[in-house]
Design goal:
- By secondary structure, the protein is of the alpha+beta class.
- It has a single domain (5-196), classed as NADH Oxidase (3-Layer(aba) Sandwich), CATH 3.40.109.10.
- It has eight helices and five strands, in the order αβαβααβααβαβα.
- The chain is globular.
Length: 200
């Protein structure tokens, strides 16, 4: 669609009704991730973000892991609704992006800059959010719908084992994406922007 930057930002939404129709070749999604890894800022340029792109088959396996894990912890009378959401909002898409942080890089940063050791976690969270936002907005610009999910840490061990991920990687968030089946409702401004922005 190629909107200008602020148009793309304004159009980014959370989509909870997806199907698996591909709008672009998977290589284009991988290129977005690659460019984000090469250009997004990180504290002291430690480049600690790690991203796993799950194509369709791996994406299905991932959401099967989530469902299997949740079945153990969600009450039986509530699981039907949980399963429905997993299948229509997440698993029904065409791929998932997993966002990780390499804790070994964080430890190195603490050692290099002991004065900021207690701030590293905060710095890293800010950086991780930027990676997620860039990719989310870029997927939207391709015509995909996406949302940001957090089934970690319940699923961490099984996911790491399934794809043989390094032990130092910490799962931060999951982003299922696919072709949107409908447009979400308009955003609700619970606090007017004029009250949240001061200009001097």
């Amino acid at each position: 669609m190629r909107r200008n930057f602020m148009e793309a930002v304004a159009n980014r939404r959370s989509y909870y009704a997806l199907n698996s129709n591909r709008l672009v070749d998977e290589a284009q999604v991988c290129e977005i991730v690659r460019k984000t890894l090469e250009t997004a800022p990180s504290p002291f340029n430690i480049q600690s973000a790690r991203i796993v792109v799950l194509g369709y088959e791996a994406h299905i396996q991932f959401w099967d892991i989530v469902e299997h894990t949740l079945r153990k912890v969600v009450a039986e009378e509530q699981f039907g609704a949980t399963r429905q959401k997993l299948h229509t909002a997440f698993r029904s898409g065409c791929g998932t992006i997993l966002f990780y942080e390499d804790c070994a890089a964080h430890d190195q940063l603490r050692q290099r800059f002991p004065l900021y050791a207690d701030k590293v976690e905060s710095f890293v969270q800010q950086s991780a959010g930027m990676y997620q936002f860039i990719i989310w907005t870029a997927l939207e610009d391709l015509g995909y719908g996406a949302s940001l999910q957090h089934y970690n840490p319940l699923i961490d061990a099984e996911v790491a084992q399934r794809w043989a991920l390094p032990a130092t990687w910490q799962l931060i968030a999951q982003m299922p994406y696919g072709t949107p089946l409908h447009i979400p409702e308009d955003r609700v401004q619970t606090s007017p922007s004029d009250e949240r922005m001061w200009v001097f």
